[in-house]
C-alpha cells in the first residue's frame, strides 16, 4: 500500500512538473499564468485559532492534502467520513464537510499555482489520498481496539 502511494506521489509530481511547463492555450501573454486571486487569510482560520496557511507545503499536492485534512478534521471525522462519497457505495462513511473540502481545494490550487484544467487532473489523487488516510486511521484504531480487548 505504501509503495503504491509513493509511486502515485512520484507520478503526480512528474505530472505537475510537466503540466506547469506548458503554456495555456489562448493565454494572454501580458498576464502571469501563475497569478491567482489573493487568498483572504480570515477564510482559512479554524475555530481553534490555527491558520491553514501555516500548514507547510509539501513536495506533492497529495501529501499536502492529507496534512490539510488532518489539520481541519478530527481523527474521528476522518475515520468515519470521506471526501464526496458516491451515493450508496459506502454507507458506513459520511461526507466530510463540503465547505472544508472547498478550502482544501482552494489551498492546493493556490500553493501549487494550478489553473482549473491542471487542478482537475490532480484533485482525484488528492481526494483518494485523504480518503485512504481515513481508511488507514480507522484500520489502526480497529487494531488497537482488538489489542486492548485481549
TrEMBL record:
It comes from the Eukaryota. Residues 40-141 form the BEN domain. GO terms for molecular function: DNA binding. Residues 128-150 are annotated as: Disordered. InterPro entries: BEN_domain. PROSITE patterns: BEN. This is BEN domain-containing protein.
